[in-house]
Amino acid sequence: NGIGGNAVGGPGGDTGDAGETNLLSMLIASRDPGSDLPALSDEELVDQAVTMYSAGTETTAGAVNWALFLATTHPAVLARLTAEVDSVLGGRTAGWDDLPQLTYTRQVLAEALRMYPPGWFLTRQTEQDAELGPYAIARGTVIAYSPYLISHLPDLYPDPERFDPDRWDAHGGQPQVPVTVFGGGARKCIGDEFSLIEGVLMLSSLLSHWHVDLHRRTLSSPRLPQLTLNPGPMPATLT
Fold this sequence. Notes:
Oligomer: single chain
Helix content: 25-40%
Strand content: 5-15%
Structural class: mainly alpha
């Protein structure tokens, strides 16, 4: 659903159709627990919709592109990844029921997130006085940190510059995700698991239908500073 006209509140505006299950309609239909008034103002509805759109497209697309880049530049990984995709999907598009069988695909995506987290620079504000190592941090201080740098610390990830999806081998369980990539606390990314599901389905579906041959000599570096850490142009031949 678009935002405009009567799509969002106001006189004569849409109050949300109980039969609709898209995100915007559910936000419009939400009500304050203490009254029958809308829970969100028009401005808040727009903010929520824009946030979900921007956070759910560029970041996931960037992570999948990094996974494609890393897999195609590591032949052993690509062979194992495509073998899993071919075995599970057999040339079709991935669906929800395929997720438990796409474990190595998720490992590849998790390792791409570690090496190139979309949110490479984040901030948090302290709610009380705290100590960080030898530093005294007063309440209300804004702390800036980089998931990219943390994901490349050798104390956390031995040989951090090596692309190794087996770091996330859960031995039959569900692979975890790199620390700090989705933030933490009350402001932790609300779409963390959703983005992983979306990324696995997207990556496996692409490889199910296409052979990706990157033109490695023409790859460009990421452009910084920008909001997300996405690769530059990635010329490729798809067959």
